[in-house]
Amino acid sequence: MEQRETIQQILVRRDGMTEDEAQARFDEVARTILETMAEGDCSLEDIEQIIEDEFGLEPDYFDEFI
């Protein structure tokens, strides 16, 4: 079974980011997710929507933020 690309790898390949830029973008969105969760009124669907909005990726990439 082929291993799925990470979000950072996708950003490098698809968006032409450097590895450092991709990691910084990932970290930024991870902070957004944590802040949303800390507000207390956050569902799994909210987090999936952030991933889709910020990266244009399917919700199955949620596991990278756990």
- pLDDT < 50 stretches: none
| Annotation, overall tally of beta strands | 0
Termini separation: 22 Å
How would the global form be characterised? globular
Any chance you could write out the topology, listing elements then pairs?
Blueprint: H1 7-15, H2 19-38, H3 44-55
Short synopsis of the structure:
With 66 residues, the chain is mostly helical. The chain contains three helices and no strands. The two termini are 22 Å apart.
How would you characterize the overall build of this protein?
The chain is mostly helical and 66 residues long. The protein has one domain (7-57). The chain has 3 helices and no strands. The protein has helices spanning 7-15, 19-38, 44-55. α1 packs across α2 (19-38) and α2 (19-38) packs antiparallel against α3. The longest helix is centred in the middle third of the chain and has 20 residues, at 19-38.
Which keywords apply here?
single chain, 66 residues, mainly alpha, 3 helices
